[in-house]
Design goal:
The complex is a heterodimer of chains A (about 110) and B (about 120). Chain A has about 110 residues and is an all-beta fold. Helix content of chain A is about 0%, strand content about 50%. Chain B is globular and about 40 Å long. Classes of the chains: A mainly beta (about 110), B mainly beta (about 120).
Chain lengths: ~110, ~120
């Protein structure tokens, strides 16, 4: 259906290690958005991917959209303690609303 | 500060009661979304309004209702509350485009505790 599956659910890394979270859909996605929620905070928009095979970078964060537009990934290089939080992907359904969020990947970074 | 204002920030009530959560979207945003986040859970889409009209519906219980007023603020009404309704309720707003929902700006949430 319209669900997006995120893996892993939790990830503990040592500061300086890399981190990747994956978002998968059984159906083709029109676009994918990524959000970050710090502990005790609210989700904050990171990026939107629209084109097949699209790759976007934000400093140490690299976002990819699969060629078939059924999966996406977020990769963080050399994690820092400020990267702690839950990362959500979300699929859109055109302009009719109903932005569906994945279950999220919670990242813990050990200093 | 996202520009989305939610009140109250915290609310404690008893089972069977009714509460109203309020949301003021960012200036100029016509769309308002409501999400429910239970402990260690993801964001469950409840409902979306666009310029006063219901646009999309998610897994919203019949005990819950919402509306968007002419000044674009929105209210989420939760009635006959049960323990399981305890959660963080987020409101978000956006300026949807023809192609997609656009970036969502979330408020800080209203934490509801039902005892």
């Amino acid at each position: 259906g319209q669900q997006v599956m995120q893996i892993p659910q939790y990830q503990h890394v040592q500061e300086g290690e890399d981190f990747t979270t994956y978002c998968n859909s059984s159906t083709t996605l029109s676009n994918i958005q990524w959000y970050k929620q710090r502990p005790g905070g609210h989700p904050v928009f990171l990026i939107q991917l629209v084109k097949s095979g699209e790759v976007k970078k934000q400093k140490r964060l690299t976002f990819q959209f699969g060629e078939a537009k059924k999966n996406s990934s977020l990769h963080i290089t050399a994690t820092q303690t400020t990267d702690v939080g839950t990362y959500f992907c979300a699929r859109g359904s055109g302009n009719t609303g109903k932005l569906i969020f994945g279950q999220g990947t919670t990242l813990q970074v050990k200093p | 500060d996202s520009g989305v204002t939610q009140t109250p920030k915290h609310l404690i009530t008893a089972t069977g009661q009714r509460v109203t959560l309020r949301c003021s979207p960012r200036s100029g945003d016509l769309s308002v979304y409501w999400y429910q986040q239970s402990l260690d859970q993801g964001l469950q889409f409840l409902i979306q309004y666009y310029n006063g009209e219901e646009r999309a519906k998610g897994n919203i219980l019949e005990r819950f209702s919402a509306q968007q007023f002419p000044d674009l603020h929105s209210e989420l009404n939760l009635s006959s509350l049960e323990l399981g309704d305890s959660a963080l309720y987020f409101c978000a707003s956006s300026v949807p485009t023809i192609r997609d929902t656009g970036e969502l700006f979330f408020g800080e949430g209203s934490r509801l505790t039902v005892l």
